[in-house]
Design brief:
The structure is a homodimer of 156-residue chains.
Chain A: H1 14-39, E1 43-48, E2 55-58, H2 61-75, H3 88-121, H4 131-155
Antiparallel strand pairs in A: 1-2
Chain A binds a DNA duplex (17 and 17 nucleotides) through helix 1.
Subcellular location (chains A, B): Nucleus
GO molecular function, one term (chains A, B): RNA polymerase II cis-regulatory region sequence-specific DNA binding
InterPro entries (chains A, B): SRF-like_MADS-box, TF_MADSbox, TF_MADSbox_sf
Chain lengths: 156, 156
DNA sequence: CTGGCTATCCTTAGTCT
DNA sequence: TAGACTAAGGATAGCCA
């Protein structure tokens, strides 16, 4: 149970790396999720899975929807909980608020998407490149690396 | 100093929200950064700044480069630190490893970019929409919301 | 508003199942 | 292999400068 201060460096042991990846990815996604709720914003994390060349995107289209819903439901409901039998004006104001919040959320999601587009414009990719090509290449590189590791193990 | 368990819900107080945003964003970026180093992968977080309609992307082109460098420098250097005066074969193997690691990193960055492209293809945006348009709209919505909040304050 | 401080809460490395 | 457990380490809410 003696956990030392972890050195932030590449984990060579495959199993430890896998475990750490799984745990920490979960933690990051949770934190991103919390921030979106606490601050009523859109946010996402895009992280590669080093073990099956999958890429994990959060929020996915489904997750993003959930965030917006949660935002709309919790942000102003709590605030107005103590006036659920409020006056006509209060009800109207509440409705307007909800509408504006929704507008704002939609707007911000668009902003984020545009930002991603702008970010991607700084990256240049060969036109004829596909994800499957890359996965194949990655597999080959991985195999080479394993071979080298074995050679090293033999030498040391 | 009595910090209670925080309820994950939209923070109504502007200053508290701002402080929380600043602190937690920093924490998330750190965690993402650590994960990329620990597991030798690419990862990024895209988070809106709720206060100036800016969108913070990590890694930015500069940050991404740093990650790759750090990855290349730390992942295998530590492992081979105890053989820095190694044999000819060991030196060659080390060089091959570095090359392959670099290839792999490049490959993974391309994968991520492609993944982002695929993600964006699920989003449809009006063609004639610009980030400045959205910022203008956002500002207007913000002003409306403030007005409503003032009205509510007057009523309550 | 931003950054530093610290008690408290939260995350996670190591371990077993 | 992934989940559960638990203590050490890390993040951060609230407060002050």
């Amino acid at each position: 149970m003696t956990r030392k201060k972890v050195k932030v460096a590449y984990i060579n042991d495959v199993n430890a790396r896998k475990a750490t990846f799984r745990k920490r990815k979960k933690g990051i996604m949770k934190k991103v999720n919390e921030l979106t709720i606490l601050c009523g914003i859109q946010g996402c994390a895009i992280i590669q899975n080093p073990f099956d060349s999958q890429i994990e995107v959060w929020p996915n289209p489904k997750g993003a929807k959930k965030v917006v819903e949660r935002y709309l439901n919790t942000s102003k409901v709590d605030e107005t909980k103590n006036m659920n039998q409020g006056s006509f004006f209060e009800q109207r104001i509440y409705k307007s608020q909800s509408k504006l919040n929704k507008l704002r959320s939609e707007n911000r999601e668009k902003e984020m998407t545009l930002a991603m587009l702008e970010y991607l414009q700084t990256k240049k990719l060969p036109e004829n490149l596909s994800l499957t090509d890359l996965k194949e290449m990655d597999k080959m590189v991985e195999e080479y690396m394993k071979e080298i590791e074995n050679m090293m193990a033999t030498l040391c």
